[in-house]
Give the backbone structure.
Amino acid sequence: MSDTLNSQPGTTDQRFFYGYVLLGYSFIVCFLASSFFLHARGVFFPQWMADFDVNRTELSLAVSLTLFTGACFAPVVGYLIDRFPLRYITCIGASWLMIGYVSMQWVDSYLAFLFILIPFQGLGWLGVGPLVHTKLMVNWFTRHRGMALGIAIMGISVAGVVVPVINAYLAETYGWRTSYLIYAVLLAVIVIPAALLLVRQAPADIGQHPDGDPHPPPLPHAQTAKPTSSGFKATYTEFLTSKAFWSVVLTFGLMNGVYSAMATHLPTYVTQELGLSLYDGAFLLTVAGGFAIAGKVVFGRMMDTLPAKLTVMAGVIAYMLSTLLLLFVDAYAGLMAAAACFGLGFGGMVPVRSVLISRLFGIAKFSRVNGLLSFFIAPATFWVLITGWIVDTWGTYATAFQVWFVAFALAGTVSLLVRLPNREDAVS
């Protein structure tokens, strides 16, 4: 597909919209970056337990602390993303990950594992993961922003379907340490060169406009002529005093992280409480990953065409339905339906959240508010530990599922009570 640029100085030729190239780039980098940890940790768990002589709780703590560390530093990286070229942020993040992955070759204890995993994976992910790529898509797309965000971040979900089997092969054939060395090579030969060669900060850098349109997008209705301060303190004061910001924090803080808990505990639930095989549990995760792919596209399109509140509530309902199925259905077909609803809701909420904050605070401040939001929902990274503690205390996953349902119900209540911006309400 090509887009015709207006016959004006510097824009007289017909050119393919470069945003589509960046869409494919973001998809691939998100695919690779999530493959190295998000979709590898579960596969490597048994080998980690054997090598370090630790239990599931200790390894779950390592994962939670890694995610929590990344969330805590997200505001800092978000600030840097808004101020410096994205290609350099990605190169630095990928290089930092490479150092950590190569260092894994000499890890021989649990404490050494924590020392490498938490700072390198926790911080490196910020430079190669969704925080960077959502900013890139927000810069390049306006009318089709929801769809673009959904497709770009879809790489994470596609990796969830494809990569676990590949990682299992690598782990069994070469071991987890060598697997991380392979990951480092992929960062060096694919991610870093692609970032340097392909990434352009915004359409204006090459004489184009968002969505490939021949003219700049008109100012949205919510744009005000009143000047606002762009200083560091004023910007973050604006975020922290915004009711809309805190409503998004509360809504997504209640939902965020539960998918990680489900991905970690679902195989154990179906094997220990329902007597099914580990293969059955793994296939449920594949189903969830497949529907997460669909969720990113479906909900991204909904944000482009439907009221924001309706879209958010559809995701909440998908989450609630999944927990009801887990509570009251133990037939395998019902479990598959639960996994599908869970994946659909999780996949959909990623582009929804990004679109919402871009509409609330605009493109120029997007990554700063996105990073700050990640910081305030950081406690959600401990859902994995919370779920394990509930099960150990009450002896059944049913209690944990009830807690999940209450969290989703509260998120839905908040969504109904607050005003969520539609496309025509966006800030420039």
Observations:
- Residues 145-174 form the longest helix (30 residues).
- The radius of gyration is 21 Å.
- Residues 14-199+232-419 form a domain with the Growth Hormone; Chain: A; fold (CATH 1.20.1250.20).
- The chain has one domain: 14-199+232-419.
